[in-house]
Fold this sequence. Notes:
By secondary structure, this protein is mainly beta.
Amino acid sequence: xxxxxxxxxxxxxxxxxxxxxxxxxxxxxxxxxxxxxxxxxxxxxxxxxxxxxxxxxxxxxxxxxxxxxxxxx
Length: 73
């Protein structure tokens, strides 16, 4: 299933995200990397930042980007 996120196409596989693998904080961003089911070659990484929303003016944690991170062997 291909979704549009922040103006770009992104392959999303439903029910693939498992547990939190790692997180890190860099400046004003939080990076959350989640394990995925075995038959998927990549993990999902969500980049979070505090920002005003598209439909509201409240500054809160929002997903800025979703990345695919190659699994370690």
